[in-house]
Amino acid sequence: MTSASDRTKLFHALHKPGPLALPNAWDVASALVVEAAGAKAVATTSAGAAWSLGAADGDHIARDRAVDLVARIVAAVGIPVSADIETGFGATAGEVGETVRAIAEAGASGVNIEDGLGAGQRDVAEQAERFAAAHEAAPELYVNARIDTFLRGVGDPATRLERTLERAAKFLEAGASGIFVPGVTDLETVAELAKGIAAPLNVLVGPGAPAVAEFAKAGVARVSLGSAVAEAAYAVARRAAEEMLTKGTYSSVENGIAYGDLNALFKS
Q1: Which of 78, 112, 158, 240 could be disulfide-bonded to 252 (CB atoms 3.0-4.6 Å)?
Q2: Domain count, the chain
Q3: How confident is the model at residue 117 (pLDDT cuts 50, 70, 90)?
Q4: What would you report as the CA-atom Rg of the chain, rounded to the nearest whole angstrom?
Q5: Residue 143 and residue 96: Cα distance in Å, rounded?
Q6: Cα four-point dihedral sign 78, 261, 204, 63
Q7: Which residues of 146-174 are buried (b: 16+ CB within 10 A; e: fewer)?
């Protein structure tokens, strides 16, 4: 395994030109599976991580539990790890800085910080302070600034692109490394975002979205599956439980990773 510093430098470089494809993980086993599949980096999903720790998504787990999970994933894989830390596990910019410092000390190469739009919406200046605190706490980390204008349908659709670009500019000025705009996958809008943002653009994908190669042509630097992989995994668990309890059969668990193959991913 290379040093944390080397992995962080590599993680920054993977965005240029990209696209960096990230099938998000939520625990050590899923991170090892993602690495074994050939991913160049591991990014966690905050939703999947929270669910695996027995909590709902949305800043409901304690910071130390989130940091501990990141440390375990970093120790298990040999590629860069980016941690989704929800809105930063802190009410203030200073507390967000403390979280990011702890994540850096855990060996992560990047963080994803949510916009805070929606309930308890933060204005752009307040949110920029949080990104500034994150950058100051760990200047070497890749700070992915999530902007939820499209995801949450904030404001007038006619000015949504403009509003997103304005927020992106402020967050980059505050020290963010890249911009994450979930909730939009149409290539025309994505291309406008990529053109208007002076940093790597990350989009959220799923069934029905254009292929990675198409996003690359539109200027996207990073493509994430978010919580979709965890949701699909838990769907298998539900189907298997329902099938066994109602029909008494077991076909839902066909085509799983063989026990020996999965067990072999873990270091002795």
Answers
A1: 240
A2: 1
A3: low
A4: 19
A5: 12
A6: negative
A7: bbbbbbeebeeeeebbebbbebbbbbbeb
Query: What domain range includes position 30?
Result: 4-226
In a domain, 254, yes or no: no
Question: Rounded mean pLDDT of 180-196?
Answer: 98
Measured in Å, how far apart are the chain's first and last C-alpha atoms? 16
Residue 249: inside a domain: no
pLDDT score of 176 more than 90 = yes
- Is 109 part of any domain? yes
> Does pLDDT of 85 surpass 90?
yes
The H or E element containing residue 178 is strand 178-180
Q: Please report, for residues 4, 44, 108, 133, 190, the alpha-carbon distance to residue 112 in angstroms, rounded to integers and kept in the order given.
A: 18, 9, 11, 14, 19
What is the per-residue pLDDT for 116?
Answer: 79
Phi, psi of 75 (to 5 degrees): -70, -25
CA–CA dist 121, 127 (Å, integer): 9
Check which CATH number belongs to the domain holding 97 and give it. 3.20.20.60
CA separation for the pair 108, 131 (Å, rounded): 17
